[in-house]
Model the fold of this input.
Amino acid sequence: MRADAFHRQEIRAWRRTRWLGTILLNVHRGEDDPAQLPEEVLYLPGDPPLLTISPEELDAELARVAALDPDWL
Done:
């Protein structure tokens, strides 16, 4: 009982930190970058599941990142 209350309190505290981080990231994002959601910045217990990407989308993203820095892969 007490552990559950403590756990909920900790998650509420992390949600405040997550909102602050999301605001800071979105304020300093590039002109063409999409705004990020709090769940994308920091996933917490109780959040809805994040959308997964297809293997083709993952390959395209890895190719894009590899083109930015050839030594990365």
About this structure: The helical segments are 2-27, 38-41, 55-68. The chain has a mean pLDDT of 87.
